[in-house]
Structure formats: C-alpha cells, structure tokens
Amino acid sequence: MTTAIHTSTAPQQSFDSFYRAVDGESIHAEKRNQSTEIKYYSEKIYGTYSDFIASDDFVLLQVEYTADLEKLEALAQQHISLKPADIAKIFQEFKDHLFREYSKETQIYGLLADTYRAIAYGEVRLNLHLALKGIEENKSLTKENIAQALNEMVDGLNQCIGRVQSNMVGAIQIVREDHKNFHEYICVIQRKLAGQIANEFVQYKHKNGHEKFGNVYHIHIINYLLNTVSEQFAFEKSTEYGLRYTKGREVTAAVVEEFKLYIESKLTNKALFEYLVQDFIQKFSHIYIKCDGPYTANGYYDQAGIKGDCRESLYDSASTLLTELRVVTGNKDFGFTDLFESDVIGEPVSPRRVQFNLKRALATELHEKLKGANTLSFYLTSDSTKSIKVISGDCFSWLDIDGEPNLATIEHLPLIHKVKCTDEIKSELIVQSLADEKKTPVQLYHWLEVQLICSSIQSHAQLMSQVKKDLIDNAAEIVMLIKNESSCNRLKIVSAIAGENELIMMAIIERKLTLNDDLSDEELTALQTQMETVNFNTPELDGIKIAIRQLPSNSADNLLKIAITQQKPEFLQGLLECTSSMSGHCQNSRKLRTRPGRLLHLAYRLESKPCFELLVNRPDVDINFIDSDSSSDLCLLHQAIDNKNDFYAKLLLSKAEVDLWQMNGKNQTVLTRIQDHETFKAIADKTLADRFASHQMQFNEHGEGFQEEPFSVCLNESHYDEISELCKTMQEDQNFDRIYSKLCRLSTDTSSDELHANIKFILGYWLKARSDTDVDLILHFLSQQSAVNLFVLQCVNKELNNLEIHKLIVKTKMENDLSLTQDDLDCFEIHYVEIRSLLGSYLWPEPTFQKILSDAIQKNNIGLTKMLLTEKPSMSFERTFSVPKKWDKVYNECTPMNYAIVNGTEEMCMLMLDFRPDEYRCEESHLNHSTLLKARFKFFSQVLSKKNISFTQRNNYNQTLLHCAIQAANQVEEVALKLEAKAVVNALACRVEVDIFAVDSSSNCCLDKLLEFIPLEKLILLITNNTCIQEPDSRTKTRKNKGLSLFKAKAVEMKYLTFSEQLNKLNQSLLAGCNDEKLINTIFELIEANDFSLSESQLKSMSLIILANRYGHIGGLDRLLSRHNILISIKNKQQIHGLINRLCITYSKFRGTLNSVTSEK
Question: Which of 370, 488, 1030, 1097 is most buried, taking the most CB atoms under 10 A from its CB?
Fold first, then answer.
C-alpha cells in the first residue's frame, strides 16, 4: 500500500516556480468543474447539514454515491490482491456508515454519526468521484498505477473518516502522475519523497524515547507535520478531519521545530536523484524479469539474446517506463540503447553499467533544469595518448576519456587522488572505482590510504562492506602485504575495515608494534583476547612477542599501563613475560629495574585489583618499593592504610617480604599503625610469626650477665635502620644475650615513643614464636641480671604474663622511685611478703614509702593501703605527697587523709577515717569543703557524727559548707548519690550552727537553693526559727560615717553589712513584729544598701523571708509596696520599680505554692 500524502518537495528555492503552477490551482479547478456534475454536501451551498438531508439533492447523492461505490468495488475485485469477501465486507461496512439509520447519539469511529456523514457526503464524496473518473478516463495508466490508486481508495474505508479523506487525495495524486512536463513529473516525485521523509520521522521518534508517538492518528500526524512546512515548500495544505486529533497532543511545538530541521536536511536534490534512480532501476528489473529477458552466467544483461517475442514484449511492457525516462532525462528518443550503452556494441552489459548510464542521463537533466547550469568539468590529464576529465553534476560524477563517458576503475584511483575538487565528487568517483569487478587484492590494499583524504567514503556502508569482504576473502595475501607495510595510516585503515579477521588483525598488531605505533582500542582488545585465550608459548604469538621485546622502554610501559588501566591481568601477565627479557641499551637502566615496583604503584593508583593481585605475587616485584616519580613518597602499605583501602593493605601485609618498619611522614612504622585494626593486626601476627620461626637459642656458658658487643646501629630520627637491624638480629642470631644487649641499647630513656612501640611489638611477636623451653631459659636469664632493663621486662611480661617477671618489675620500679600501675599494686598486695623481702629495708625510707602509699590510694587499692598503714602508722608528710597545683597553697602538709580526699575514692576516705582519724582536722576548712565538693557524702556523714566541725568557715569563693553541699548535690546524677546528697544538705540546713542566709561571692544565697531539697513549708519553719549568730567574715565592712541624719545613719548601717547579715536583719525585724511602714522602710534600705542591684537568688531569698513572717497578715506584696513609693528618690525610680516588680512576682509564686500545699492539707 502506498501512503497517501499529498505533499512533497525539496527545500531548494528553484523548485517553487513549478510547485505553485501545478498542485493547488489544477486540483481546485478540476473540483470546481466536477462539482456541477455530481451532488455532494457543501455548507456554502446548502447551509446546515440538517438542511441538506431535508433537500431533494440528498436523494440524488445517495443514488450517485452508491453507484460510484459499486463501480469502485468492481474495479477493486479486478485489480487489487485482497480477497473478494474481504473487499465486499469493507464496502458493506462503509455503506452502512453512510446510509444506515442511526440515532443521533450513535458514534462512528469516535464521531457522532451526523458529523461523520457530513464529511463523508462532502469532500470525501467529491474526491472519490474524481479519483474514480481519473482511473476510467486516463488511458495512459498502467495496471500497476491502477492497482496502486485502487489500493489507496479501498484501504481505510473501514477506518476513521480523516484517514478516508487523506487516502482519497492520495489516489487523485496517483492517477494524475501521467504528466508529460518535466516539472510536473518531478513535483509528483517530490510529494512521494516528502511523505516518506515524514513517515521516517514519525518512526524515528517512536523508536527513540517516544514509544507512544504515532501509535494513534499515524496518518493524521504525518499530514499535520507536512502542513507545518507547506508554505516553506509551496505544498497544498491537507484539510482532512483527523488533523484536529494531533494538535496539542503528541505533536508539540518542539516536535514541529525538530521536523522542520529534519525535512530540510532530507528533502534535497541528491535525495530526489537517488529516489529516481532506485525507482527506475526497480521498474526496469521487474519488466526485464517479467519478459524473460536473457542473462549471462555472471548476471549481465545479454543484449544479443534480446530478440523476437522477447524483444516485442520488452518494448511493449516498458513503453510507460521509457515515456517517464524521456520526460525526466529531457531526451525524447531515450530507449534501451541508452541504457545498454557500453564500450563494445552487442556485448553483455553489467547491471552496474546500466545504472551508470541511467545516473548520467538523470544527473545531466536534473542539474540543468533544477540548477539552470551546465555540468562541470575537471581535466585530470591530457597528453598525446588520451584525455581524461571529470564530469560532475549536482548529484553524480563520472569520467570522460577521449570524449567517451566511462565508469571509474581501480586503475584510475591515483588520478582521482590528485584531482582538486570537493570531497563529494571525489567520493563518488572512488565508489565507482572500488566497485570495479576486475580489481585485485593488491590494488585494493594499496588504494586504502587514499580514503584518509576522502573520509566521506566511510558513509557508504554497502561499499565498505564489500571492501571488507574483499580484504577478508584474500586474507593470506593481505597479511603478506601488511608484514612489509611502512605506512601506519594504511595499517590503521585496514584495521578499521577488516580487523575482525583474526589473521589480519594479528598481522597489523605485530607490524604496528614493530613500527612502534600506538595500538587502537580495538587492536588492544584483540591482543588481550589473544593473550587470554591462546597459550602464551604457542607459535602464533612468536612474532608479537619478538615485537614487544624490541619495543623502547616507554612504549612497553604504555602497553603495560593500558593492561592495568583496563584491569586485564592475563594481558598484563603476557606482556610481563615479554618485557621481562627486553633487549636493548636500557636492559640495566634504573627505569627498567624498577618497572615492576612502579607498575605495582600504578595498579594501586588506578584501583586495578586483579592486576595488583597479580603483581604483588610476582617474585620480581618489590612490594616495599617507593616510587620517587609519584606524588607520594610513602610505601604502598602506608598509602593503603592512609586511604583505608583494606583490600590492598591486607594483600601486602600477608606477604612474607613486607617491610613493616618503613616510616611515614610522622616517623610511624607500619607495625605501630596497624595495632588498632583487628584485621590488619591478625594478618601481621601471622606474617611475623612465620618470620620469627622457632630456632634453638643459645646462652653464654654461665647463663648470667651478657657480653656487650660493639653495636654499630646509629640512633636517628627515623629509627628505620635500628628497627630493621633489630628484626634481622632476632631472625638470625641464636644467642639471646646478644639480642638482649641490642634491646637494652635501643630501649633507653631518650628513645622515642615510636621506637619503644616498635620494639615492644617486635619482641612480642618474637616471644610468641618461642618454645616453652626457650621461655624458661629467657626468664632464668633475666632473673639472674643484676640490673635489668625495665622496658624489656615490661615487654616480656606483657607477652608471657609471668609472676616472677612481674615481681622484678615492681621491685625495679620501687628501687627507681617510679609510679606503680594498678597491676603492679595488685601484684604487690598479693605477693606483699615476697616483694617486701626482695626490697629489704629499701621500702621504708621516705619519700619512697609515701610514693608507694600514694599510688595505692590513687588506684584505690584498699588491701595494700591497709597493709602499708598497718606496717608504718607514723610518717612524715611535709611535701611528700604530690597534689594538683591548684591545691599547693592549701596543703602545706599533705597527709594520707588529705591525699585520699583529693585523689582517692570515698571508700578510701572511709578507710583513712578509721585508720587515721586524727588527720581529719576540723579546723582546716579546706578539708570539709573539699570533702563535699568531691561528693564524698557518705564520708561527710561519718565526719558529722564523729567530729566537731566549724560550720561558719568559708573557702576561697566565700562558700560555706552548706553552699558546697548544695553545689555538689546539683552536680551528681546517680539516684543513690542524689539521695545521699539530699540527706547531707538537710542535715546541714537543720543544724542551728548553720546560717541558711549565707551568700557566696557570686551572690548565690543558700536560702533559695534549699527549695530544691527542702519543702517550702519546712523551709518557712527554718526561717522563722533561725537563731544563728553570725560570725563576721573578712568581707564585713567596719567603716563608720558620722555627722549624718538619723535616717541616713540607718541606711549606712545597713549598707556596711554583708547581704546575709542584711537578710538576717530583715528576718529579725519581721520576727519582732514590725508594722507595714517599718517593713517597707527596711526593704527599701536593703535595696538602697545594695546599690539598687540584686540577683535573682537574692530577691528569692527576700521573698521567702517576707512570706515566712507575713503570710497570715498581708495580701499581695505589690499592693503594700505601691502605697509607699513616695520614699523612692526620683533618680532611682526606674531601677527600684524593676526590682519591686521582680520581688512581687517571686513573692506571688511562692505564696501560690504555699496556698496549694495548705489547701491540700
């Protein structure tokens, strides 16, 4: 079926003149003439559709329409390939849609019946009649034309009315394709081509991300798109009904713009030329086969065999084709002679030659008619023998040799190569040359470099496919040519065209390696595949292996880098086998020697795990190599740890030759860095265990002492040499006394922490590898030394956990006045008698004893502390116990009790109170305050029950014991500790000696803080029963001011009291039963005495005192105070109002709380 699209042309401006002269005017004129012959619905003539149905003309329409449909059905039964039953069914369905009675609500293909019929009675009716009349009257139509037009008319009758509209217009175009005018004929072809292009665009959109595009309303979308370019190309717009279904749906503005660009690029003179050539060749081939035209054995047209009936039949069948060719070529005598024209008259003609003759004739006419110019000529050569020139039109080019048109052959390629013309012309001539059936593989091979000059040849897929086939079919010859090739460009082209052939590709790779030329991605892939799938030692790879071995070092490195980058371990393995035995002057160069190590670094940087694993297991790869050319100056193991690349770190750590002593920029070895990583440490444990495999140790004859040997290791900042030397000694030397000597030399007080850490780990691994017998000998050796190295002892004990060694450690620490660890103290406690005897009398001199006692106190070793205090109950204290600097001014003599309070636990403090009660001197205020601030509540309760404490003493922050107790209680979080703290606070607050009105240096009053621990009603009782006699502290001012008025004298008297004394005076005044006026005066005096600035804590304390004494007498404090604002000076009015408001608010809150409690009771 031919798609019915009634639009088409190329975007060239030269076509416009004959487009406008053909389509629109002629068709519309024909419709006007025919409209008087038949009846059809027109709104202009009949008005509404209802008026037309009611008219007499509707009856005539039914008769005429039915007659045309019957005529059309009869023709369809005769000419198209559908089954008669199917044709009858289609026509019956269409007749039902036209004339069967339907209700107004009935729909036909989505339209109301009246709407469908209005279109079917109108333009569809008229176009059907015109197309049918054209088929009947146009005697020049071939059977194929008639069948094509009938197919177009019948197809779609059982679809939407828009499709019927479009197909009828398409049928009219087909029956009118008998134009004798060149421009009319070209216009029809352009219409067809435009329809194909639009259809291709819809299909393209459908396949490229727009799955639903064109699924529905396909023909309407094509017509709509062509309408959008109708003005640009002078097309007649389609008016079919289905166009309304496309706008605003799939066909967006972006799609329209895309289509415009698409059709501009496709609808060209060249496209028209190719369409005509293919159309005519297909028609000619069809006619020739149908008439049993003779062929030769090689598929050529046999001119000599065309005679008799065959000749008559061929000329009769081709009459229409020849007529069209005469129109389009401009040659009124054009015939078979022109098609079959060849170098030798009467000889068989190749289909290629027939196509050439047709193209040449078409190109000449198209160029002259469409461009308005003659063909172009380019002379190639002219000598005494022959003249060769290029003839070129807009669409086709050919050679003219001595005035005769000729196809370009393979022999002409050198000449074509030299001609100065466009790539398109040159490409056309090359295409002709490569299609030469007589070309040889050698000629074809030597041509290939020309392709670089004319890259457009690659777009000829069919031609390139043939070239590829020719090369592969002659692979053996091509390989021999490749082996001697010196042009890298030609090798590149052959690889691109025929590289899929294994023989050709391997030959190209070998030759390019020999020439030291870069391999393409495809060539590298082929080489990889070959090395991965074929045994490396097979003869097929000998040439490649030799070529690789002869590569310069840089080129070989590039190949290796590619293998690593692409993560191809098998490829890398094959390359390494070749490059490991490279010849040349670089054999002994540093770059070649370090290549394996550099490759390992490269595999790490490129994260090529398979290649890294391959390299790290090769014996020629130094895994400890540091690549000086890289940005990092660290070994790979340090880099892997820094970057948390566990895969690489694990692999490196598992290798026996890994160097764990290499340093990073912070002088840290690998060994110390991996200790906190369980997985890394486990791998290193196994590696070092294997390294320090057990061997029979030897000691000197006496087994005690050791001979100091000359030790050449020079201590330096990095320690790498020292650690490496020590490790080597421990691996190879069987004399432990020499090992111990080296350990002692390295383990000095001046050695760095990093060096100590490495020695500790190395010694630990070495000890793990020792047998039980070796361990016993080591222990015996150490116990016999007169002066042992404490660090070595600790390292040995950490690994072996031996009691005797631990005793030696404790003894050594005590003798050197060093602090004991918790383990040391526990050991001392458990083995007190033994260690005591080891120490002899050395234990008792001071300050050694105090040092041991302080360690026991600080580590909360109760048992050992009891033993020490029992054995030595009396001791000197002055400057023997170390205390924090902030306590230096407090503790001139730090007793065990003092030290326990500052540094020990509460349990230790309780122990001291039992063993040394006299050291808790109640007059030392810092002792009481420290006890509370350290949250020793249980201990302080014991002190309260046993000692007479001064409760008025204050610390450096002017805090009383009650302050300290409240502060400590607010800081603890444990529930049990909270309860203990609350009990202590309550106990202190209820004591008569304690001043609950006390204020510290930060203006924090005890009174308001007590609300967190004591209920309000109980606190009120404490306030009203407060009879504490305050002792003046250092902050009480004694200055007097005489000569003032009585009122001022009273104010001054209040001013020179501390705030706690002021609160007490306010309380005493209220307890004495002062009246409202005196109360107000006292409040104002207190405020004025504090410069009109009181803290929140001070205001709350004042409110509590007033509430406690006046709760039953007055209402709101604000009403009372507001009546006496006359006493406020104008200067401080704003300040005092703020304080009064805050005081009143606080008072109201407390009063509200007290009211709630009272009402509940």
Answer: 370
